[in-house]
């Protein structure tokens, strides 16, 4: 212990030499491992050429894509990706809303509200997600009335265990001119916003920058819509067939299938429970003085929450909530349990039809990596913006 | 301080060496490198990939044992190699995982309602033996829907298993017939049956043997077997049979000729009941050759399969011939042998055994 490099006498005992030897040995081991993996990988067939062959199978749930079995395998995979992306986007938005609501409800002074929130959080956090998905699908959504005995809602929508069909707007071919006109409208609105903000700073009177900018945008958008000939169509679901032997179907409108709904509900409810606890924890982590000062200034409970508490709690919330977002993204792969064709499901079908397991699974992993990476990057940028100055 | 450093260095070195050792030993995976027969004999049992939820073909009984048409062929192989039909390890597999299990060497033979197709033979490196069951794809609908033909199923929702030839054939048949439809694919039959019984889909398509089997087990509270009809049309060829891995001829020959032997026994009328008397007193040279007995002055034929000469006697005594296996497993689920492709060639079917000589 007394021997240091300064005396330099015994090379073996010097700390620097020991460190160098350790590092060299470990680096050698890692290099050997990598070399071995590379040699094994080179022997594997990692080509993706088979993805251009005809797929041969149809995919039932499609939205905004029009894939048929005659297209290539890569098109089939793309349908899976679109399905996953729409599930994840809608899921993230709804889970955040539900999580914030439940988190705030947990801290409510109303005994019933806070207990209900507690029960919700405890039940859905502590049961496996796969069981929850299968439960929502087989025990709830499949038990809706069958199509022959379906329910008409207000004569425009139709509910059965095949789908919830509601009227919806779809853009027709002439939508591009309208979208092009929206760009100058947005610019005009931004310009108005800037002028009103400057007016507010100079004169001290409220300039209503946000409201006026929004009003400008809406007016110009509606004007552009009328000028380009109203390029949106409203589609109402229609009944087709059903007499005699032919099968009853509903065509048109937006149809939400029980598979998508079960997956969405399960993911939202499960992730929402976790987000609720994160929100509750971050609100409770704020110093009590903030809430007391807000009360002293005369803010209502709603104003207190939205103007003082939540903006500060956001700073604490963001990293754990990012984790939950990534969890939701990856948990969407459980769609295989109920036959919703997300990208893992389609990938598995491709693997069964064509072989080539390793390239397919590498592609699936790479897709998830890109999706999760995007979400994490966005959330980290948001995190940097809300950090306290000087951190 | 120094001992802590040394300890850390030692742990790192051991960990690194352990990683390398682990990586090196996992090189061989599960495959026996082309000599499955020897590996099976050394191990003492046959690893057989089967179904565990298809009554009649491969299913798990309440007492924990496996039974079915495919399962009986597993037992026959074990009886041929070891003289004991119980020396089988059953590996239940899903449709998605079955070929991976075969290529990875987790099973020796795959006997699981598997259709013989060109791409499976070549691309997936599976070698298919003689066909044990000539099947075809069919459609099952609810009896009260009134649907008689596939043309009636325009705009229908059809339940199908993921990753099977069924899915591809469905698309081919319906698109070539100009019939629009919506597929609903599931990973397993249990969830599919739930969706079908709740009327989520109008039709259920699969091999007719699978449909007959699931129909026979359809729960009474959903309507029971009589509430379902299997449409008459067969819209694909599904020759089902055992499969081994490519590049292993000795093992392939063993599996192939055990099955052919059972078909030969059916043609010659040798059953589990009379095999003992026939072995004592063979009524014809064909029977003698089948049972591994001498014919007159010529000694017993050794087919070069690496099995004991009397392997067919063990197989027939413990498992039975093709007809007995069929009657025991498939007739109870409602598929008669007479008049179908699975009848003997003499009766107009396709079961034809190459000569065992």
Give short descriptive properties of this protein.
heterodimer, A: 391 residues, alpha+beta, MetI-like fold, four-stranded antiparallel sheet, 11 helices, 8 strands, 7% strand, globular, B: 357 residues, alpha/beta, D-Maltodextrin-Binding Protein, domain 2, three-stranded parallel sheet, 15 strands, 16% strand, flat
Structure description:
The complex is a heterodimer of chains A (391) and B (357). Chain A is built from eleven helices and eight strands. With 391 residues, chain A is an alpha+beta fold. In chain A, the strands form three sheets. In chain A, strands 1-2-3-8 form a four-stranded antiparallel beta sheet. Chain A has a two-stranded antiparallel sheet with strand order 4-5. Chain A has a two-stranded antiparallel ribbon with strand order 6-7. The longest helix of chain A has 34 residues. The two termini of chain A are 40 Å apart. Chain B folds into three domains: 99 residues, D-Maltodextrin-Binding Protein, domain 2; 100 residues, D-Maltodextrin-Binding Protein, domain 2; 90 residues, no CATH class. A five-stranded mixed beta sheet of chain B has the order 11-10-12-9-13. In chain B, strands 5-1-6 form a three-stranded parallel beta sheet. In chain B, α6 links the parallel β10 and β11. In chain B, α3 packs antiparallel against α12. About 2% of the residues of chain B have low confidence.
């Amino acid at each position: 212990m007394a021997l240091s490099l300064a005396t330099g006498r015994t090379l073996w005992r010097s700390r620097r030499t020991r460190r160098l030897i350790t590092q060299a040995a470990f680096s050698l081991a890692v290099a050997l491992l990598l070399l071995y993996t590379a040699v094994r990988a080179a022997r594997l067939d990692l080509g993706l050429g088979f993805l251009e062959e005809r797929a041969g199978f149809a995919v039932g749930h499609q939205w905004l894509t029009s894939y048929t079995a005659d297209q290539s395998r890569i098109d089939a995979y793309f349908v899976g990706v679109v399905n996953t992306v729409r599930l994840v986007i809608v899921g993230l938005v709804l889970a955040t809303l539900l999580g914030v609501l439940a988190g705030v409800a947990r801290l409510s002074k109303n005994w019933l509200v806070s207990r209900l929130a507690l029960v919700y959080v405890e039940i859905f956090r502590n049961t496996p997600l796969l069981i929850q998905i299968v439960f929502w699908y087989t025990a709830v959504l499949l038990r809706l009335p069958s199509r022959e005995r379906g329910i008409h809602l207000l004569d425009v929508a139709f509910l059965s265990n095949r789908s919830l069909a509601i009227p919806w707007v779809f853009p027709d071919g002439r939508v591009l001119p309208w979208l092009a006109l929206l760009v100058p409208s947005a610019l005009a609105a931004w310009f108005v916003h800037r002028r009103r903000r400057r007016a507010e700073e100079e004169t001290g009177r409220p300039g209503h920058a946000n409201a006026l900018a929004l009003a400008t945008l809406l007016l110009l958008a509606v004007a552009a819509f009328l000028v380009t000939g109203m390029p949106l169509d409203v589609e109402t679901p229609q009944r087709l067939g059903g007499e005699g032997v032919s099968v009853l179907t509903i065509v048109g409108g937006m149809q939400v299938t029980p598979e998508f709904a079960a997956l969405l509900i399960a993911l939202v409810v499960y992730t929402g429970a976790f987000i609720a606890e994160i929100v509750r924890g971050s609100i409770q982590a704020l110093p009590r003085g903030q809430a007391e000062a807000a009360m002293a200034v005369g803010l209502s409970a709603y104003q207190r929450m939205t103007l003082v508490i939540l903006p500060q709690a956001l700073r604490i919330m963001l990293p754990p909530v990012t984790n939950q977002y990534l969890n939701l993204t990856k948990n969407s792969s459980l769609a295989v349990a109920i036959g919703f064709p997300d990208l893992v499901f389609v990938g598995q079908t491709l693997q069964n039809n064509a072989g080539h397991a390793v390239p397919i699974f590498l592609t699936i992993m790479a897709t998830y990596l890109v999706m999760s990476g995007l979400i994490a990057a966005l959330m980290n940028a948001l995190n940097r913006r809300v950090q306290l100055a000087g951190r | 301080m120094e001992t802590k450093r040394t300890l850390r260095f030692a742990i790192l070195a051991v960990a690194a060496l352990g990683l390398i050792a682990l990586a090196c030993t996992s090189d061989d995976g599960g495959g026996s490198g082309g000599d499955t027969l020897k590996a099976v004999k050394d191990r003492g049992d046959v690893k057989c990939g089967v179904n565990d939820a298809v009554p009649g073909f491969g299913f798990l009984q309440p007492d924990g044992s496996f039974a079915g048409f495919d399962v009986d062929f597993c037992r026959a192989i074990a009886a041929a190699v070891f003289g004991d039909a119980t020396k089988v390890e059953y590996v239940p597999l899903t449709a998605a995982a079955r070929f991976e299990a075969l290529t990875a060497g987790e099973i020796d033979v795959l006997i699981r309602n598997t259709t013989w197709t060109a791409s499976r033979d070549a691309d997936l490196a599976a070698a298919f033996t003689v066909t044990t069951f000539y099947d075809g794809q069919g459609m099952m609908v609810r009896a009260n829907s009134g649907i008689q033909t596939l043309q009636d199923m325009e705009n229908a929702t059809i339940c199908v298993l993921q990753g099977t030839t069924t899915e591809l054939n469905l698309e081919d048949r319906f698109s070539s017939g100009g019939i629009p439809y919506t597929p609903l694919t599931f990973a397993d039959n249990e969830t599919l049956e739930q969706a079908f019984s709740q009327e989520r889909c109008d039709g259920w398509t699969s091999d007719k043997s699978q449909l007959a089997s699931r129909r026979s087990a359809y729960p009474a509270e959903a309507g029971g077997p009589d509430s379902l009809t299997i449409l008459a049309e067969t819209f694909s060829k599904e020759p089902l049979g055992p499969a081994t891995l490519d590049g292993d001829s000795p093992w392939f020959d063993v599996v192939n000729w055990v099955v052919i032997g059972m078909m030969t026994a059916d043609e010659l009328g040798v059953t589990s009941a009379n095999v003992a008397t026939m072995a004592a007193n063979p009524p014809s040279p064909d029977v003698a050759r089948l049972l591994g007995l001498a014919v007159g002055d010529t000694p017993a034929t050794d087919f070069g399969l690496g099995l004991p000469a009397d392997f067919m006697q063990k197989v027939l005594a413990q498992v039975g011939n093709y007809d007995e296996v069929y009657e025991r497993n498939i007739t109870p689920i409602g598929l008669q042998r007479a008049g179908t492709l699975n009848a003997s060639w003499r009766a107009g079917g396709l079961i034809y055994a190459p000569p065992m000589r």
